[in-house]
Amino acid sequence: QVQLVESGGGLVQAGGSLRLSCVASGRTFSSYAMAWFRQAPGKEREFVGGISRSGGRTYYADSVKGRFTISRDNAKNTVYLQMNSLKPEDTAVYYCAAGHDSGISSPGYEYDYWGQGTQVTVSS
Predict the structure, then answer these.
(1) Is the CB of residue 97 less than 8 Å from the CB of residue 24?
(2) pLDDT confidence of 26, banded at 50, 70, 90?
(3) CB 117: neighbour CB atoms within 10 A?
(4) For residue range 46-80, what is the model confidence (pLDDT) as tens digits?
(5) What is the mean pLDDT of the segment spanning 26-44?
């Protein structure tokens, strides 16, 4: 069992930056691929980006490529999402997910564990 807890969300102006963190419980964090998803009101959940177990490979949705960066620190059981040049359309609840057999671009149903989400609101 893995528990995920996100933090770092908040209100920011367009063009600003935020860094989200997701801390995982358990001793096997490095055996999980990790990803970030988001869901805006009235919209379906959307893949944001994923990172491999070692952190050596990442993959991003086109909508955030060049603006968002995923990283992980396996010693701290933590995955990060650095978000720069934020836009109002980035407003959503952001979720981290862990998948034992997932790839870095896997769809949501392939992930085993989810956090509770953290709200990101970007004002124009």
Answers:
(1) no
(2) confident
(3) 17
(4) 999 999 999 999 999 999 999 999 999 999 999 99
(5) 94
Residue 8 corresponds to which tokens in the numbers above?
């770092």
- In this structure, what token pair is assigned to residue 70? 């995923």
CA Rg value for the chain? 13
Compute the distance between CA of residue 28 and CA of residue 32 in angstroms, rounded to an integer.
7
Long-range contacts, 66-72 (Cβ 8 Å, 24+): 70/34, 70/36, 72/34
Amino acid at 108: G
What lies within 8 Å, CB to CB, of 109 at 6+ separation is none
List beta partners, residue 50: 35, 59
